[in-house]
Specification:
Helices cover 44% and strands 16% of the residues. It has 680 residues and is of the alpha+beta class. The protein folds into three domains: 264 residues, Response regulator (Rossmann fold); 51 residues, no CATH class; 265 residues, Up-down Bundle (Rhopdopsin 7-helix transmembrane proteins), CATH 1.20.1070. A hairpin with a 6-residue loop joins strand 18 and strand 19.
Length: 680
């Protein structure tokens, strides 16, 4: 507060001397109002809203109150009216007269504290801990209207045990005209009541738009129903609390209390427990929060000629009413500037597709609008958060709607799958025709010379390789995901194992033809069948381990593309997948190596050359397939694997069997010469 209040132990005579007074900054005019009474009610009101400094003739700066607020002046009139009403009522505080001692705080804390000390010390004095007139009969204080002055007043009065009573309630106001105000209901204490009761206060205030000759109760600026009767209600509640203390103590004891001035310490208790009925029949009391129960009237302010404000009653607020009936508003009576309802916010509405983002550099009610990120939407105005679309949905460009994503897989109706299916059927048909030719010519020299059993196994496995392509086409399911790689791997291992067995048999046949060679003892054993069984069994074991540890499964890739969901098979264990392919590559590499070594055999055993070319094609296809497979997604990745299966299978079929079919069907003379040579 800027003041240090100490307890002085000086005599009364010494207290009246100038040395006992606090040296406070002087003011041009204190606007003090005093009336003697048995009980004095102190009052601090903000009538002027600011203070100016200007030098005096002694060159000392003097404070001057400026800027009269007529609405606040009406609070002071309400206070005076309430004093007179209590004094005229013989049933409230009988034989006790209320007086008052009032100052204007001018909305400044230091001025409010100075005025409070002047009331406590007596008219015109500023002596802490002394009432310089010899009588300390102050019951309590009313005021102030502003928290900046009310708080320091309360801190000071708390030291002396005085009750302070006045609390203003107001609703926030819009920055645009017209404005609204919430006022407590009390028709009897509005300025119009002064005229009805013959009340004529004499005050020294200069009101705007007045000549100074008007009667205060006839001024239009004071006859409007604006301003809150908090001062009236505060004084009446304090009076009824004094009345309750008067009844509790009895008249004689109460008179002694007035003389001893000790009742002020008990007044606060009776004020908190106060409950009385006013002249309108309404029960008045303070709730648990210290709020005075009152009905609030809501007025609409309409500026007239930029001078006066016309106040239109538009509704009310009743705190104790049911929630749905507390606030009653007649919106048809509200006048808005330009007939447009103003927005009580400092930021523009965030449209659908965006959300509000707090801006720390702006007030808490302000915010920025940010667009929802990809995959999220908001479909309402001023959305706090964006709503995430499902993984199978995509957000529109305006971010206000979610759409289902298109499913992508290699369907049977796709042009690419039709082309691949046609090629697969074509080569399957060719392999079946070649198998039929070999069966019908099974006793021919060329069929026997190239191990007809291995040829039949190879043709059947190749035809099945062409058919297993259809496991890769269509919408994947868990069953097809588990079967397609396993079936392809096992069938293709049989094909490559058959080629390996044929290569080994060609090489062994050439070695056996030499005299005294030990291979003659082994050639009678079914070596070729054993090679096929053993080599393909290893692939079966690898596939079983893969299925047991981490089998393939169906998955939906929702993140690779914005508007598409890739329906695909996840291979489960990449190690298992590449182990299956890697083993096929090992078989092919061994076959290629053996065939390359046997390429210089006599012409009648020239199948080794064709096997060499077929394995070269096989290895080239699958080596280039791996990076292409890993770098593509969706149906293109499946198409790469199907193309590799068809190409490698067609390479085996073409290089190994087409030359034999040429001899059987087009040049049978070579088949006869080969038979004669074999018989010789």
């Amino acid at each position: 507060m800027g003041l240090i209040i100490s307890s002085l132990t000086l005599s009364m005579n010494l207290a009246l001397s100038p040395v006992c007074k606090l040296n406070l900054k002087p003011t041009l005019e204190d606007y003090k109002y005093y009336k003697h009474g048995d009980i004095i009610i102190g009052g601090i009101f903000t009538v002027y809203y600011h203070m100016d400094e200007f030098p005096s003739v002694t060159y000392e700066k003097i404070m001057r109150c400026a800027g009269l607020v007529t609405v606040n002046y009406k609070y002071f009139l309400n206070f005076l009216f309430a004093i007179e009403e209590v004094n005229r009522n013989p049933y409230i505080l009988p034989n006790v007269t209320l007086g008052y001692h009032v100052y204007d705080s001018c909305s400044k804390a230091n001025k409010a504290v100075k005025s409070t000390i002047q009331i406590l010390s007596g008219p015109g004095a500023t002596v802490p801990n002394y009432y310089c007139t010899g009588e300390d009969n102050i019951a309590g204080f009313i005021g102030d209207l502003l928290s900046v002055t009310t708080v320091p007043i309360a801190q000071l009065l708390n030291m002396y045990g005085y009750t302070q009573n006045l609390k203003q309630k107001r609703m926030p106001e819009s920055s645009e005209e017209p404005r609204g105000a919430v006022e407590e209901q009390c028709d009897r204490c509005l300025p119009t009541s002064y005229k009805n009761t013959g009340y004529r206060p004499s005050v020294n205030f200069e009101l705007p738009y007045c000549s100074g000759k008007e009667n205060v109760t006839e001024l239009p600026v004071l006859l409007k129903p604006d301003g809150s009767p908090v001062a009236y209600n505060a004084l009446m509640s304090m009076t009824y609390a004094l009345h309750a203390l008067h009844i509790f103590l009895g008249r004689e004891v109460f008179s002694n209390y007035l003389k001893k001035s000790t009742y002020r310490h008990k007044l606060n208790k009776y004020l908190k427990e106060l409950e009385y009925m006013d002249q309108s029949g309404m029960i008045k009391y303070y709730d648990k929060r210290g709020e005075f129960n009152i009905i609030f009237h809501i007025y609409n302010w309409k500026l007239i000629e930029n001078k006066y404000a016309n106040y239109i009653f538009v509704g009310s607020f009743t705190p104790w009413a049911p929630p749905d009936k507390q606030l009653l508003i007649n919106s048809s009576r509200i006048f808005w500037k330009n007939n447009k309802i103003p927005r009580s916010q400092c930021s523009e509405y965030c449209p659908p597709g965006s959300r509000k983002l707090k801006n720390d550099k702006k007030p808490i009610c302000c915010y920025d609008c940010v667009k929802c990120p990809d995959g999220e939407i908001s479909n309402t105005t001023d959305s706090e958060n964006c709503i995430k679309c499902l993984d199978t949905e995509w957000s529109s460009s305006k971010r206000n709607q979610c759409f289902p994503k298109l499913e992508e897989f290699l369907s049977f109706s796709d042009g690419l799958s039709i082309a691949l299916s046609s090629i697969a059927i074509l080569f399957w048909t060719i392999s079946i025709l070649i198998l039929g030719i070999f069966v019908s010519h099974k006793d021919s020299a060329i069929v026997k010379a190239n191990n007809k059993t291995l040829s039949f196994i190879l043709l059947i496995s190749l035809s099945l390789c062409f058919l297993c392509v259809f496991l890769f086409i269509g919408r994947p399911v868990d069953r097809t995901c588990k079967l397609r790689q396993i079936v392809f791997g096992i069938i293709f291992s049989i094909s490559v194992s058959s080629v390996l067995a044929k290569t080994i048999m060609v090489y062994m046949a050439f070695r056996i033809s030499r005299p005294g060679n030990r291979w003659k003892k082994i050639i009678g054993i079914k070596v070729s069948n054993s090679i096929v069984v053993v080599a393909s069994s290893i692939e079966v074991i690898i596939s079983i381990i893969w299925l047991y540890l981490s089998p393939p499964y169906l998955e939906q890739d929702t993140h690779s593309y914005h508007r598409k969901v890739i329906i695909q098979c996840n291979e489960g264990s990449q190690v298992g997948f590449f182990a299956v392919l890697g083993y096929l590559f090992v078989l092919a590499a061994v076959s290629f190596t053996v065939a390359y070594l046997a390429r210089t055999l006599p012409d009648r055993f020239n199948e080794a050359k064709y096997i060499t070319f077929s394995m070269l094609v096989f290895c080239s296809v699958w080596i280039t397939m791996v990076p292409s497979y890993l770098s593509t997604k969706g149906k293109n990745m499946v198409a790469v694997e199907i193309f590799s299966i068809l190409t490698s299978s067609a390479g085996l079929l073409g290089f190994i069997f087409f030359p034999k079919c040429y001899i059987i069907l087009i040049n049978p003379q070579l088949n006869i010469k080969m038979r004669i040579h074999m018989e010789q």
